[in-house]
Amino acid sequence: HYFKQTNLRMDPGVVFVAPTEETAHDEGIEIPLDDDSTCNLKVLQSQFANAVGLRFRAPDTGRMRALRMDDCGKIYPPPQGWDNLTFIVVVDKKRTRDEDSSEKIENENKKASNDKIGDLIILGLSYKATENDVRDYFKSFGEVKSCEIKKDYGGNSRGFGFVSFVSDEVAKQVLTDTYHTISGRKCEVRIPKRTEPERKLFVGRLPRGTDEKDLSDYFSTYGALADVYIPKPHRGFAFITFERGDDAEIVLKQKHFLKDAPINVTLPDPPAKKQKFGEPEYGERGMKPFGGYR
User: Fold this and answer.
1) pLDDT digit string, tens, across residues 91-119
2) Is the pTM of this model over 0.85?
3) Is the peptide bond before 207 cis (omega within 30 degrees of 0)?
4) Shortest CA distance to 67 belongs to which of 27, 31, 95, 94?
5) Alpha carbons within 13 A on the beta-carbon side of 31
6) How far is residue 86 from each of residues 6, 56, 83, 133, 238, measured CA to CA in Å?
7) pLDDT of residue 8
């Protein structure tokens, strides 16, 4: 059963807009129209920050139908006009996810300002970075108490580590910036959680000539990327890391094609072994050969 339009009798100079059909009754508002009976996108965005358009459920088909908007941000009414219809806001989902992700990390780091701070986790480290590289970077903030890069049985970096400081005030200063560039690689530094979401994915069966930009352009449509890494020389696989685990989960549920060729996207670990925080991850050389490994 699709959403049933309410018989709205409104002032002809307004349009009834809601964030979703389900919340129309409680959260719907009237947006004033311009003199030419169009809805101005900037006025809409004053109430819904990430709005990029409007849509409505067509009474004749029961399907959602988008409204036309010109380059000036004027949204034109449907043929039947604005009256007696509820219009739903179309939002920029990627921008909303990015803002939510940054706000979530920022809130977690701010929460630590009133607590005793221990180790900070460093995610997305370059596999070539050494503990001395990490220590040298962070000692510019203050005295480093300890620094550790997690390694596999062969002594190779797993791409993450921990750092702690003698003073909590120094740690709080480090946390004011979510991302830090260490050994030429953007890394995320934050308070460790009990469990870490799966944000890192293995991409196999890459077409010849694929570079980091190709992967970034393709996968960034699903969400903000923290890192893209293709081992050199090119061996037909890569690793991508999303800033949000939710975005990575969406990618795992879909089929993917790059340069008109199918590619494999899987977890770096075998699916049967769900990794827990603190356990080693498969890094550049610790990857087990499956899912399109050439």
Assistant:
1) 876 655 555 555 666 666 555 545 567 78
2) no
3) no
4) 31
5) 29
6) 8, 6, 8, 57, 46
7) 46
